[in-house]
Amino acid sequence: MRISTLITAVGALALTALITPTAHATVGGSSDIRILNATVNGGKDIVIGTTTKTITATVTSTAPSNIKNVSLVLFHGTHLNTDGYDGVLNPTSNQADCRTVNDSTSTCKLTISGNPTLLKNETAGTWKAYISVVAKDGSWADADPYSSVRIQRKTLLTVNASPEPVGKGKTITIAGNLSRASWWDDLEYHGYANQPVELQFRKAGTATYTTVKMAYSNSSGNLKTTVRASVDGYWRYSFAGTTTTPAVKAAGDYVDVR
Length: 258
Known about the structure:
- The protein is mainly beta.
- The protein has 1 helix and 20 strands.
- The chain is elongated and about 80 Å long.
């Protein structure tokens, strides 16, 4: 029975987000068992920094005798059963918390540990979910993969506008830094180089930021540009994100213009 084997066998990497199924039908085992839907992290991309993050997954499935247990394994690659992967993360428990929906259907919850020491930087992006279901009569079915998911390296963004205060019409220098988590190797944040970042301004007393210009991070992730002071307000940098790193906005830095 594959569910117990998979939970204990592999110990490497991974994670991510909403599960968008490639097909609702299972692809192995009993044809009487069907996976109806599955969600990881409430349908959001999973962002991992330099500390462990506990992720919740939910699987709803059906069988004539109802469901005994479910396993959801996240992996980076093509297929789990054929060793077509280079990273995997298993559930934290051999037994999911299964609640009966009706005579044939149950929703099972389980947790996955997002341990960054088991994640390689180059595997950030698209991952896949393998799901195995065991019915109460002992029959089983699996989907390899069931869906695509995504895991991203957490980003940090800072800003510092100076001088403060500043005379009207004088130059303001807006500095900052864009960095992202490095897993596996050192669990530190390192500069994210050559990325476009928007410089935005919000006039004091208003609620909306407007993009003023574009800046690019240098080889160390540092940002620096200048503007002319006109009115009091808040300056910030805003990064749109990539497939491997999430969007992030710096907290606004207030500048008093006199």
